[in-house]
């Protein structure tokens, strides 16, 4: 059910949630989990009344806190990894583009069964636009999924590739920088306590020295880190990630990592209370976001340079105290590749397109809906259809952009269909968790990460 106004909302949660001053008390946790949470998240995402939507978001987040679910920074765990106190696994960071509430439930179910601790839910700047999911909506969908599945503990929300657009930066540096800063502020307000700033688009390989090539990258990364430190809530050190090579470009080198880190650390504010630096570094080792589609729509096999990944990860830890290197664009790799990431001490791995493909290519995804999405893509994004691309290649590259326009229709698929899609996602997630060695890490995560309950102002619609 979608509540269209505050009176419907208040009637819906009465006898299940009770307002207690500026917070909530759960009167019936079973009813919250079994039905009300569905109504709250659908209201948060689809209610025509903004005030009612905001109120539903607040109820979701405060109800989650009441049952032990809090947004958290992974910083303490990454600091322990940087000191070699914790090792042996690679943290999965998962981008949910479609059916976010339902897909997140699949993640939590797999995590609960495997006693998995560190799982990051993330969304990139570009994904926010084409999936029509602002940070607060994403937070609420993931948090509601945690309530629905009975999960308890820290939830790691991350801004992935909060990226500076090189062309826009060249035209107006101040405007583009401010756009990224605005997004960072919005994300932190929504409970994103992990932010990957991506200024690697500014690397200029025409410069003579490696440090000169990385200069614009590390200078702006330091500026954004300083801003994040100013915005983080009391008691929380937001985990910030940097990047030295744009995914899909040339492979990163040890020299680039050293040049970036030295320049970056020099550029951070010093003094009596220096800013905490980044906790990890994203590198390029041969992958491309989404993979490279062939003429028939299949994805080309990619060879990752694991030697480079291992060297960069080791240097990041031993010299700079970071958790290690981060691998992007990995979800379309062959299954046999994933156990190699913990073997070379990769700190974090980003997974996105593979889950999108499971949904689109599932025999349970309605063919008529898929056909309508594809027709819409061919009409809206015709200008992006390169002359050399087959129809299959064009659709593979652009179908991620169909999730925004058809979001409500997808969320309203029949329950049996959503259940089958969720089961397929859960099966792949359980496989990946095993390969990445994050099973049985829940207690380790609990040891290092103690989430802080950040106060949220009571919405106007719930006052009085």
Describe this structure in words.
The chain has 464 residues and is α/β, with parallel strands linked by helices. It folds into 2 domains: 62 residues, no CATH class; 323 residues, Alpha-Beta Barrel (TIM Barrel), CATH 3.20.20.70. An 8-stranded parallel barrel has the order 4-5-6-7-8-9-10-11, surrounded by 5 helices. A two-stranded antiparallel ribbon has the order 1-2. It is globular.
CATH superfamily of the largest domain: Aldolase class I
Strand content: 5-15%
- Distance between the amino and carboxyl termini: 24 Å
Would you identify the CATH architecture of the largest domain? Alpha-Beta Barrel
CATH class of the largest domain: Alpha Beta
Number of domains: 2
Low-confidence stretches: none
CATH fold call of the largest domain: TIM Barrel
Could you say which structural class the secondary elements and strand pairing correspond to?
A: alpha/beta
Task: Name the shape in a single word.
Answer: globular
